Amino acid sequence: MEKSNVFLLSILLMASLFSISHAFQLWGYAIDRVSIRGVVYCSLDGDPSAPPVSNATVYIECPGGSNSTLAQAVTNQVGVFTLPWLMFIANYAIGASRQ
C-alpha cells in the first residue's frame, strides 16, 4: 500500500495537549470527543486545486509504530471522509492509503 500525505484543515490539534482524563474546555463546554472531516487531494503540497482521491482509506492510529488503528473511513467520489466521534486523547497519527 502506498501512503500519501493528507492535508487536513481545521483539526483540533490541541488534542495532543491533554491527557485522556481531561477534556478540552471551549466556551465553557467540555469537549471529550471530536469528529474529523477532510478531503484527500492527489497532491504532495496540499494544493486544493488538485483532483480529489476517491475510494482511499483514511486512518488514525497511535503513533510510534504500534500500528493500532483507532478509526478509519473511506473517501467518497469527491475525496471527502469523516472519522466520527473519536475519543479526545493525545497524539493521533493520520494517514491515507489507496490500493
Explain what you see.
The chain is mainly β. Helix content is 0%, strand content 41%. The chain has no helices and 8 strands. The chain has strands at 2-4, 24-26, 29-31, 33-39, 57-61, 69-74, 80-87, 93-98. It has a 4-stranded antiparallel sheet with strand order 1-8-5-6, with no helix packed on it. Strands 2-3 form a two-stranded antiparallel sheet. A hairpin with a 7-residue loop joins strand 5 and strand 6. The model is unreliable at 1-21 (pLDDT under 50).
Summarize the structure.
The protein has 99 residues and is an all-beta fold.
Keywords:
Phylloplanin-like, 0% helix, disordered N terminus, two-stranded antiparallel ribbon, 4-stranded antiparallel β-sheet, globular, 41% strand, signal, mainly beta
Task: Give the arrangement of secondary structure elements.
Layout: E1 2-4, E2 24-26, E3 29-31, E4 33-39, E5 57-61, E6 69-74, E7 80-87, E8 93-98
Antiparallel strand pairs: 1-8, 2-3, 4-7, 5-6, 5-8
Keywords: Signal
Signal peptide: 1-23
InterPro entries: Phylloplanin-like
**What class do helices, strands and sheet pairing give?**
mainly beta
Main β-sheet: number of strands, strand sense, barrel status? 4 strands, antiparallel
Shape, per Cα inertia axes: globular
First-residue to last-residue Cα separation = 6 Å
Question: What low-confidence regions span 5 or more consecutive residues with pLDDT below 50?
Answer: 1-21
What order do the strands of the largest sheet run in, or round the barrel if closed? 1-8-5-6
How many strands? 8
Question: What percent strand?
Answer: 35-45%
Number of helices: 0
Work out the radius of gyration.
14 Å
